[in-house]
Predict the structure.
Amino acid sequence: MTWMTRRAPSGVVALLPMLAMLAAPGCARYKRRPLDAEAMITAWQRRTPTDLRVAAHAKQHGQPFDVRDGVSIDEAALVARAVHPRVHLARAKAGVATANRTAAGRWPDPRISGTARKITSAVPQAWLLDWTLSVQIPLSDRYGAENARAEAAATAAGHEADLRAWQVELALRRAWLRWSAAKQREAAMARHVRAFRPLLAGARERARVGELDTARIGVVEVAFLDVEQRSTRAAMETRLARRVVLRAMGLRPTAPVALVPLPAVVLPASARPAVLAGSNPVDPSAAGPDDASRIRRRHPALLAARARYNQAEQRLRRAIARQWPTLSIGPSLERSDSGLALGLGVGLPISLVTGSFRAIATARANRVLVGHQLTWTLERLLADASDARARTRLAEQQLAAVRAKLIPAVDALLERLTRLAAIGEIDVLLVQAALNRARLARLVEIDAGLDVGLARLALQAALDAPLPLRTGASASKEARR
Protein backbone atom coordinates (compact mmCIF):
# COMPACT_ATOMS: atom_id res chain seq x y z
CA MET A 1 0.00 0.00 0.00
CA THR A 2 2.87 2.35 -0.84
CA TRP A 3 0.50 4.54 -2.87
CA MET A 4 -0.94 5.96 0.36
CA THR A 5 2.28 7.89 0.96
CA ARG A 6 2.26 9.64 -2.37
CA ARG A 7 1.18 13.22 -2.70
CA ALA A 8 -2.39 13.78 -3.71
CA PRO A 9 -3.03 15.52 -6.97
CA SER A 10 -3.36 19.30 -6.98
CA GLY A 11 -7.09 19.06 -7.77
CA VAL A 12 -7.78 17.33 -4.47
CA VAL A 13 -5.72 19.82 -2.49
CA ALA A 14 -7.38 22.76 -4.23
CA LEU A 15 -10.85 21.55 -3.26
CA LEU A 16 -10.08 21.37 0.47
CA PRO A 17 -10.12 25.19 1.06
CA MET A 18 -13.37 25.41 -0.90
CA LEU A 19 -14.98 22.81 1.39
CA ALA A 20 -13.76 24.69 4.43
CA MET A 21 -15.28 27.93 3.12
CA LEU A 22 -18.62 26.22 2.53
CA ALA A 23 -18.69 24.78 6.07
CA ALA A 24 -17.52 27.93 7.87
CA PRO A 25 -20.82 29.93 7.73
CA GLY A 26 -22.63 27.19 9.64
CA CYS A 27 -20.18 27.12 12.54
CA ALA A 28 -20.89 28.91 15.81
CA ARG A 29 -18.18 29.92 18.26
CA TYR A 30 -18.24 28.64 21.82
CA LYS A 31 -17.68 30.93 24.75
CA ARG A 32 -17.54 29.51 28.24
CA ARG A 33 -19.87 31.05 30.82
CA PRO A 34 -19.04 29.76 34.29
CA LEU A 35 -21.43 30.22 37.21
CA ASP A 36 -20.33 32.15 40.27
CA ALA A 37 -22.06 30.91 43.43
CA GLU A 38 -20.76 33.84 45.48
CA ALA A 39 -22.19 36.32 42.99
CA MET A 40 -25.54 34.50 43.11
CA ILE A 41 -25.66 34.73 46.91
CA THR A 42 -24.70 38.40 46.82
CA ALA A 43 -27.38 39.18 44.24
CA TRP A 44 -30.00 37.37 46.33
CA GLN A 45 -28.99 39.26 49.47
CA ARG A 46 -29.07 42.62 47.69
CA ARG A 47 -32.37 42.05 45.90
CA THR A 48 -34.93 44.71 46.85
CA PRO A 49 -38.21 46.10 45.47
CA THR A 50 -36.20 48.93 43.90
CA ASP A 51 -34.64 46.47 41.46
CA LEU A 52 -34.60 47.88 37.94
CA ARG A 53 -36.39 44.79 36.66
CA VAL A 54 -39.38 45.62 38.86
CA ALA A 55 -39.67 49.16 37.54
CA ALA A 56 -39.36 47.90 33.96
CA HIS A 57 -42.03 45.25 34.56
CA ALA A 58 -44.40 47.81 36.10
CA LYS A 59 -43.85 50.22 33.20
CA GLN A 60 -44.39 47.46 30.66
CA HIS A 61 -47.80 46.62 32.18
CA GLY A 62 -48.77 50.20 32.92
CA GLN A 63 -49.01 49.66 36.68
CA PRO A 64 -48.23 52.41 39.22
CA PHE A 65 -45.21 51.59 41.34
CA ASP A 66 -43.92 53.80 44.16
CA VAL A 67 -42.42 52.08 47.20
CA ARG A 68 -41.06 55.19 48.90
CA ASP A 69 -43.96 55.03 51.38
CA GLY A 70 -43.86 51.25 51.74
CA VAL A 71 -44.75 48.25 49.61
CA SER A 72 -48.46 47.51 49.18
CA ILE A 73 -49.91 44.16 48.19
CA ASP A 74 -50.24 45.14 44.51
CA GLU A 75 -46.69 46.47 44.39
CA ALA A 76 -45.49 43.27 46.05
CA ALA A 77 -47.21 41.29 43.28
CA LEU A 78 -45.24 43.29 40.69
CA VAL A 79 -42.03 42.55 42.59
CA ALA A 80 -42.80 38.82 42.69
CA ARG A 81 -43.58 38.66 38.97
CA ALA A 82 -40.35 40.49 38.16
CA VAL A 83 -37.76 38.85 40.43
CA HIS A 84 -39.15 35.57 41.82
CA PRO A 85 -36.90 32.60 40.90
CA ARG A 86 -39.84 30.37 39.94
CA VAL A 87 -41.00 32.97 37.42
CA HIS A 88 -37.50 33.32 35.97
CA LEU A 89 -37.18 29.54 35.69
CA ALA A 90 -40.47 29.26 33.80
CA ARG A 91 -39.48 32.09 31.47
CA ALA A 92 -36.11 30.44 30.83
CA LYS A 93 -37.89 27.23 29.85
CA ALA A 94 -40.10 29.25 27.51
CA GLY A 95 -36.93 30.78 26.06
CA VAL A 96 -35.62 27.31 25.23
CA ALA A 97 -38.84 26.49 23.37
CA THR A 98 -38.69 29.81 21.54
CA ALA A 99 -35.09 29.18 20.49
CA ASN A 100 -36.10 25.77 19.17
CA ARG A 101 -38.90 27.37 17.18
CA THR A 102 -36.52 29.68 15.30
CA ALA A 103 -34.65 26.72 13.77
CA ALA A 104 -37.57 24.33 13.33
CA GLY A 105 -39.11 23.42 9.99
CA ARG A 106 -36.07 24.24 7.90
CA TRP A 107 -34.86 22.00 5.13
CA PRO A 108 -31.59 20.17 5.83
CA ASP A 109 -28.43 21.74 4.50
CA PRO A 110 -27.17 20.42 1.17
CA ARG A 111 -24.61 17.69 1.55
CA ILE A 112 -21.44 17.56 -0.51
CA SER A 113 -19.38 14.40 -0.46
CA GLY A 114 -16.42 13.11 -2.41
CA THR A 115 -14.07 10.19 -2.74
CA ALA A 116 -10.54 9.91 -4.09
CA ARG A 117 -9.42 6.52 -5.33
CA LYS A 118 -6.11 5.44 -6.84
CA ILE A 119 -5.65 2.70 -9.37
CA THR A 120 -2.63 0.59 -8.51
CA SER A 121 -2.09 -0.51 -12.11
CA ALA A 122 0.16 1.47 -14.43
CA VAL A 123 -2.29 3.87 -16.02
CA PRO A 124 -1.79 7.48 -17.11
CA GLN A 125 -4.36 8.83 -14.65
CA ALA A 126 -4.05 6.85 -11.42
CA TRP A 127 -6.42 8.96 -9.38
CA LEU A 128 -10.21 8.83 -9.67
CA LEU A 129 -12.14 11.73 -8.14
CA ASP A 130 -15.88 11.45 -7.42
CA TRP A 131 -17.92 14.43 -6.10
CA THR A 132 -21.62 14.42 -5.24
CA LEU A 133 -23.96 17.21 -4.14
CA SER A 134 -27.25 16.00 -2.62
CA VAL A 135 -30.35 17.90 -1.51
CA GLN A 136 -33.14 16.31 0.55
CA ILE A 137 -36.65 16.97 -0.74
CA PRO A 138 -39.55 15.91 1.51
CA LEU A 139 -42.39 14.01 -0.12
CA SER A 140 -44.78 15.26 2.57
CA ASP A 141 -45.35 18.33 4.72
CA ARG A 142 -42.98 17.06 7.40
CA TYR A 143 -41.09 20.34 7.72
CA GLY A 144 -44.31 22.33 7.90
CA ALA A 145 -45.50 19.93 10.59
CA GLU A 146 -42.23 20.31 12.47
CA ASN A 147 -42.56 24.09 12.33
CA ALA A 148 -46.15 23.91 13.62
CA ARG A 149 -45.04 21.58 16.44
CA ALA A 150 -42.26 23.95 17.48
CA GLU A 151 -44.67 26.88 17.36
CA ALA A 152 -47.16 24.99 19.54
CA ALA A 153 -44.39 24.04 21.98
CA ALA A 154 -43.27 27.68 22.28
CA THR A 155 -46.86 28.81 22.83
CA ALA A 156 -47.40 26.14 25.48
CA ALA A 157 -44.18 27.12 27.24
CA GLY A 158 -45.29 30.75 27.22
CA HIS A 159 -48.63 29.83 28.81
CA GLU A 160 -46.80 27.71 31.37
CA ALA A 161 -44.65 30.72 32.26
CA ASP A 162 -47.77 32.86 32.66
CA LEU A 163 -49.32 30.17 34.84
CA ARG A 164 -46.25 30.00 37.10
CA ALA A 165 -46.24 33.79 37.49
CA TRP A 166 -49.95 33.68 38.33
CA GLN A 167 -49.38 30.94 40.90
CA VAL A 168 -46.55 32.94 42.49
CA GLU A 169 -48.78 36.01 42.76
CA LEU A 170 -51.65 33.96 44.19
CA ALA A 171 -49.38 32.46 46.87
CA LEU A 172 -48.14 35.95 47.70
CA ARG A 173 -51.67 37.31 48.13
CA ARG A 174 -52.60 34.44 50.43
CA ALA A 175 -49.47 35.06 52.51
CA TRP A 176 -50.23 38.79 52.60
CA LEU A 177 -53.75 38.17 53.93
CA ARG A 178 -52.42 35.87 56.65
CA TRP A 179 -49.70 38.36 57.60
CA SER A 180 -52.24 41.19 57.81
CA ALA A 181 -54.43 39.03 60.04
CA ALA A 182 -51.40 38.16 62.19
CA LYS A 183 -50.64 41.86 62.68
CA GLN A 184 -54.25 42.43 63.73
CA ARG A 185 -53.99 39.59 66.25
CA GLU A 186 -50.77 41.07 67.58
CA ALA A 187 -52.38 44.49 67.96
CA ALA A 188 -55.44 42.96 69.66
CA MET A 189 -53.27 41.05 72.13
CA ALA A 190 -51.22 44.18 72.88
CA ARG A 191 -54.41 46.11 73.61
CA HIS A 192 -55.57 43.31 75.87
CA VAL A 193 -52.30 43.38 77.82
CA ARG A 194 -52.63 47.15 78.26
CA ALA A 195 -56.21 46.73 79.46
CA PHE A 196 -55.17 43.99 81.89
CA ARG A 197 -52.39 45.95 83.60
CA PRO A 198 -54.71 48.34 85.54
CA LEU A 199 -56.77 45.36 86.68
CA LEU A 200 -53.68 43.58 87.99
CA ALA A 201 -52.43 46.76 89.70
CA GLY A 202 -55.80 47.33 91.33
CA ALA A 203 -56.02 43.73 92.49
CA ARG A 204 -52.57 43.92 94.05
CA GLU A 205 -53.49 47.15 95.85
CA ARG A 206 -56.68 45.60 97.22
CA ALA A 207 -54.74 42.53 98.30
CA ARG A 208 -52.23 44.78 100.10
CA VAL A 209 -54.97 46.43 102.18
CA GLY A 210 -56.64 43.10 102.85
CA GLU A 211 -59.70 43.51 100.61
CA LEU A 212 -58.74 40.61 98.33
CA ASP A 213 -57.59 37.18 99.39
CA THR A 214 -54.37 35.66 98.07
CA ALA A 215 -56.18 32.99 96.05
CA ARG A 216 -57.99 35.57 93.94
CA ILE A 217 -54.89 37.68 93.37
CA GLY A 218 -53.05 34.51 92.38
CA VAL A 219 -55.69 33.75 89.75
CA VAL A 220 -55.40 37.26 88.33
CA GLU A 221 -51.59 37.12 88.20
CA VAL A 222 -51.58 33.76 86.43
CA ALA A 223 -54.14 35.08 83.96
CA PHE A 224 -51.95 38.10 83.26
CA LEU A 225 -48.90 35.92 82.66
CA ASP A 226 -50.95 33.82 80.25
CA VAL A 227 -52.04 36.94 78.37
CA GLU A 228 -48.44 38.18 78.15
CA GLN A 229 -47.28 34.85 76.73
CA ARG A 230 -50.08 34.88 74.18
CA SER A 231 -49.14 38.41 73.18
CA THR A 232 -45.51 37.36 72.75
CA ARG A 233 -46.58 34.40 70.64
CA ALA A 234 -48.76 36.64 68.47
CA ALA A 235 -45.80 38.94 67.84
CA MET A 236 -43.63 35.94 66.93
CA GLU A 237 -46.26 34.63 64.51
CA THR A 238 -46.42 38.06 62.88
CA ARG A 239 -42.66 38.04 62.30
CA LEU A 240 -42.81 34.54 60.84
CA ALA A 241 -45.71 35.52 58.59
CA ARG A 242 -43.68 38.50 57.38
CA ARG A 243 -40.82 36.17 56.43
CA VAL A 244 -43.25 34.07 54.40
CA VAL A 245 -44.42 37.21 52.58
CA LEU A 246 -40.86 38.26 51.74
CA ARG A 247 -40.01 34.81 50.41
CA ALA A 248 -43.20 34.84 48.34
CA MET A 249 -42.00 38.14 46.85
CA GLY A 250 -38.71 36.50 45.84
CA LEU A 251 -36.69 38.38 48.47
CA ARG A 252 -34.61 37.08 51.35
CA PRO A 253 -36.66 36.55 54.55
CA THR A 254 -34.70 39.24 56.42
CA ALA A 255 -34.87 41.92 53.73
CA PRO A 256 -35.30 45.41 55.25
CA VAL A 257 -38.51 46.21 53.37
CA ALA A 258 -41.38 48.30 54.73
CA LEU A 259 -44.57 46.36 54.05
CA VAL A 260 -47.98 48.02 54.22
CA PRO A 261 -50.56 45.60 55.66
CA LEU A 262 -54.19 45.69 54.66
CA PRO A 263 -56.11 48.00 57.00
CA ALA A 264 -58.56 45.15 57.51
CA VAL A 265 -58.45 41.63 56.19
CA VAL A 266 -61.84 42.30 54.65
CA LEU A 267 -63.82 45.47 54.27
CA PRO A 268 -67.41 45.98 55.40
CA ALA A 269 -70.09 44.30 53.35
CA SER A 270 -71.02 47.57 51.63
CA ALA A 271 -67.52 47.73 50.10
CA ARG A 272 -67.34 44.09 49.12
CA PRO A 273 -67.13 44.49 45.31
CA ALA A 274 -64.19 46.87 45.74
CA VAL A 275 -62.17 44.32 47.69
CA LEU A 276 -61.63 42.40 44.46
CA ALA A 277 -61.30 45.57 42.43
CA GLY A 278 -60.75 45.28 38.72
CA SER A 279 -62.48 45.25 35.40
CA ASN A 280 -64.69 42.32 36.28
CA PRO A 281 -65.15 41.84 40.05
CA VAL A 282 -66.91 38.81 41.47
CA ASP A 283 -69.99 38.96 43.64
CA PRO A 284 -69.78 35.87 45.86
CA SER A 285 -73.47 35.98 46.71
CA ALA A 286 -74.55 35.73 43.10
CA ALA A 287 -75.03 32.52 41.21
CA GLY A 288 -72.42 31.55 38.67
CA PRO A 289 -74.08 30.60 35.39
CA ASP A 290 -71.23 32.22 33.43
CA ASP A 291 -68.45 30.59 35.44
CA ALA A 292 -67.65 28.15 32.64
CA SER A 293 -67.49 30.97 30.11
CA ARG A 294 -65.13 33.02 32.28
CA ILE A 295 -62.88 30.04 32.95
CA ARG A 296 -62.71 29.03 29.29
CA ARG A 297 -61.95 32.57 28.24
CA ARG A 298 -59.46 33.76 30.84
CA HIS A 299 -58.11 31.24 33.31
CA PRO A 300 -54.34 30.74 32.90
CA ALA A 301 -54.48 27.09 33.98
CA LEU A 302 -57.00 26.27 31.25
CA LEU A 303 -55.12 28.34 28.66
CA ALA A 304 -51.99 26.35 29.49
CA ALA A 305 -53.92 23.06 29.24
CA ARG A 306 -55.29 24.07 25.84
CA ALA A 307 -51.81 24.96 24.64
CA ARG A 308 -50.53 21.55 25.77
CA TYR A 309 -53.35 19.85 23.86
CA ASN A 310 -52.51 21.80 20.70
CA GLN A 311 -48.89 20.77 21.18
CA ALA A 312 -49.97 17.12 21.37
CA GLU A 313 -51.96 17.59 18.14
CA GLN A 314 -48.94 18.98 16.34
CA ARG A 315 -46.74 16.17 17.62
CA LEU A 316 -49.12 13.65 16.10
CA ARG A 317 -49.16 15.61 12.85
CA ARG A 318 -45.37 15.57 12.74
CA ALA A 319 -45.21 11.85 13.49
CA ILE A 320 -47.62 11.09 10.64
CA ALA A 321 -45.72 13.36 8.24
CA ARG A 322 -42.46 11.65 9.12
CA GLN A 323 -43.68 8.29 7.90
CA TRP A 324 -43.26 9.54 4.36
CA PRO A 325 -39.66 9.27 3.06
CA THR A 326 -37.37 12.11 2.09
CA LEU A 327 -35.96 12.06 -1.41
CA SER A 328 -32.23 12.72 -1.71
CA ILE A 329 -31.25 14.02 -5.13
CA GLY A 330 -28.24 15.83 -6.57
CA PRO A 331 -25.66 15.95 -9.34
CA SER A 332 -22.44 13.96 -9.31
CA LEU A 333 -19.09 14.54 -10.98
CA GLU A 334 -16.46 11.85 -11.65
CA ARG A 335 -13.01 12.38 -13.15
CA SER A 336 -11.20 9.44 -14.76
CA ASP A 337 -8.95 8.58 -17.69
CA SER A 338 -11.85 8.97 -20.01
CA GLY A 339 -12.50 12.53 -18.78
CA LEU A 340 -15.29 14.03 -16.70
CA ALA A 341 -18.51 12.08 -16.15
CA LEU A 342 -21.66 13.94 -15.03
CA GLY A 343 -24.46 12.08 -13.33
CA LEU A 344 -27.53 12.41 -11.12
CA GLY A 345 -27.76 10.66 -7.78
CA VAL A 346 -31.10 9.70 -6.22
CA GLY A 347 -31.73 8.10 -2.82
CA LEU A 348 -34.95 7.03 -1.16
CA PRO A 349 -35.11 5.27 2.24
CA ILE A 350 -37.56 2.39 2.52
CA SER A 351 -39.11 1.68 5.95
CA LEU A 352 -40.10 -1.95 5.81
CA VAL A 353 -39.93 -2.94 9.46
CA THR A 354 -40.65 -0.18 11.96
CA GLY A 355 -41.40 2.94 9.96
CA SER A 356 -43.03 5.57 12.22
CA PHE A 357 -45.63 3.23 13.72
CA ARG A 358 -44.36 3.51 17.28
CA ALA A 359 -44.01 7.30 17.12
CA ILE A 360 -47.54 7.65 15.71
CA ALA A 361 -49.04 5.33 18.31
CA THR A 362 -47.25 7.18 21.11
CA ALA A 363 -48.37 10.58 19.80
CA ARG A 364 -51.98 9.41 19.57
CA ALA A 365 -51.91 8.03 23.10
CA ASN A 366 -50.34 11.25 24.34
CA ARG A 367 -53.10 13.28 22.69
CA VAL A 368 -55.70 11.23 24.53
CA LEU A 369 -53.81 11.75 27.80
CA VAL A 370 -53.54 15.51 27.36
CA GLY A 371 -57.20 15.65 26.38
CA HIS A 372 -58.15 13.98 29.66
CA GLN A 373 -55.91 16.44 31.53
CA LEU A 374 -57.69 19.34 29.84
CA THR A 375 -61.08 17.90 30.80
CA TRP A 376 -59.98 17.34 34.38
CA THR A 377 -58.60 20.89 34.62
CA LEU A 378 -61.90 22.37 33.44
CA GLU A 379 -63.95 20.21 35.80
CA ARG A 380 -61.63 21.01 38.71
CA LEU A 381 -61.87 24.74 38.11
CA LEU A 382 -65.66 24.61 37.88
CA ALA A 383 -65.84 22.61 41.11
CA ASP A 384 -63.36 24.99 42.79
CA ALA A 385 -65.48 27.97 41.78
CA SER A 386 -68.63 26.33 43.18
CA ASP A 387 -66.89 25.41 46.43
CA ALA A 388 -65.37 28.89 46.73
CA ARG A 389 -68.77 30.51 46.33
CA ALA A 390 -70.16 28.30 49.07
CA ARG A 391 -67.20 28.98 51.38
CA THR A 392 -67.46 32.71 50.73
CA ARG A 393 -71.16 32.81 51.60
CA LEU A 394 -70.63 30.79 54.78
CA ALA A 395 -67.63 32.89 55.83
CA GLU A 396 -69.54 36.11 55.25
CA GLN A 397 -72.48 34.82 57.25
CA GLN A 398 -70.18 33.90 60.11
CA LEU A 399 -68.46 37.29 60.04
CA ALA A 400 -71.80 39.08 59.94
CA ALA A 401 -73.03 37.06 62.94
CA VAL A 402 -69.87 37.85 64.90
CA ARG A 403 -70.19 41.56 64.19
CA ALA A 404 -73.94 41.66 64.76
CA LYS A 405 -74.17 39.56 67.93
CA LEU A 406 -70.89 38.64 69.62
CA ILE A 407 -69.04 41.97 69.40
CA PRO A 408 -72.03 44.11 70.57
CA ALA A 409 -72.67 41.70 73.46
CA VAL A 410 -69.05 41.93 74.63
CA ASP A 411 -69.05 45.72 74.28
CA ALA A 412 -72.24 45.93 76.32
CA LEU A 413 -70.72 43.72 79.04
CA LEU A 414 -67.62 45.90 79.28
CA GLU A 415 -69.78 49.00 79.46
CA ARG A 416 -71.79 47.57 82.37
CA LEU A 417 -68.61 46.62 84.21
CA THR A 418 -67.27 50.12 83.68
CA ARG A 419 -70.38 51.58 85.30
CA LEU A 420 -70.06 49.18 88.23
CA ALA A 421 -66.41 50.07 88.65
CA ALA A 422 -67.37 53.75 88.79
CA ILE A 423 -69.52 53.13 91.85
CA GLY A 424 -67.04 50.76 93.48
CA GLU A 425 -68.99 47.56 92.93
CA ILE A 426 -66.57 45.39 91.03
CA ASP A 427 -65.42 41.78 91.13
CA VAL A 428 -61.85 41.25 89.98
CA LEU A 429 -62.46 37.77 88.62
CA LEU A 430 -65.56 38.97 86.80
CA VAL A 431 -63.59 41.75 85.13
CA GLN A 432 -60.86 39.28 84.22
CA ALA A 433 -63.39 36.94 82.63
CA ALA A 434 -64.97 39.84 80.73
CA LEU A 435 -61.62 40.96 79.37
CA ASN A 436 -60.86 37.41 78.24
CA ARG A 437 -64.23 37.23 76.50
CA ALA A 438 -63.50 40.53 74.76
CA ARG A 439 -60.09 39.28 73.62
CA LEU A 440 -61.52 36.04 72.27
CA ALA A 441 -64.32 37.92 70.51
CA ARG A 442 -61.83 40.18 68.72
CA LEU A 443 -59.72 37.18 67.69
CA VAL A 444 -62.81 35.40 66.40
CA GLU A 445 -63.68 38.49 64.35
CA ILE A 446 -60.16 38.62 62.89
CA ASP A 447 -60.21 34.92 62.01
CA ALA A 448 -63.66 35.24 60.46
CA GLY A 449 -62.44 38.19 58.40
CA LEU A 450 -59.43 36.19 57.27
CA ASP A 451 -61.71 33.34 56.22
CA VAL A 452 -63.75 35.76 54.13
CA GLY A 453 -60.65 37.24 52.50
CA LEU A 454 -59.19 33.83 51.65
CA ALA A 455 -62.53 32.56 50.37
CA ARG A 456 -62.96 35.57 48.08
CA LEU A 457 -59.42 35.19 46.81
CA ALA A 458 -60.06 31.48 46.15
CA LEU A 459 -63.22 32.36 44.23
CA GLN A 460 -61.40 34.86 42.08
CA ALA A 461 -58.56 32.40 41.54
CA ALA A 462 -60.99 29.68 40.46
CA LEU A 463 -62.56 31.94 37.84
CA ASP A 464 -59.52 33.72 36.40
CA ALA A 465 -56.45 35.58 37.59
CA PRO A 466 -56.58 37.08 41.11
CA LEU A 467 -57.47 40.74 40.83
CA PRO A 468 -55.59 43.33 42.87
CA LEU A 469 -56.84 44.33 46.30
CA ARG A 470 -56.33 47.95 45.37
CA THR A 471 -58.93 49.40 47.70
CA GLY A 472 -57.36 48.11 50.91
CA ALA A 473 -53.78 48.75 49.84
CA SER A 474 -54.38 52.28 48.58
CA ALA A 475 -56.44 53.19 51.62
CA SER A 476 -53.67 52.08 53.95
CA LYS A 477 -50.98 54.01 52.04
CA GLU A 478 -53.17 57.12 51.86
CA ALA A 479 -53.69 56.95 55.60
CA ARG A 480 -49.93 56.87 56.13
CA ARG A 481 -49.49 59.99 54.02
Residues 1-14, 267-282, 466-481 have pLDDT under 50 and may be disordered. The chain has 13 helices and four strands. The radius of gyration is 37 Å. Residues 17 and 23 are 10 Å apart (CA to CA).
